[in-house]
Amino acid sequence: MANLKTQVIVLTKDFRIEGEIDLIQGSRLTDFMNETNKFMVVTKAKVSDFAGKELVRGDFLNVQVKNIQIILPAENQS
Does domain 3-76 have CATH number 2.30.30.100? Predict the structure, then answer.
């Protein structure tokens, strides 16, 4: 099965991370999170504080799963 690039927003205690994750075609974000171990890869990542100040950008970012408070597909943002 092919992987699909999925735009996500990840919120931790201190940061807002926007970028892409690779989802297997037909899988849900919930499935992805349940199968992820200690770290998840976010590509084309932009990290900001909650005031909106951009702190860093990177092609590849490892995010420690235990620090994630919320993750959602970017198209759900209002």
Answer: yes
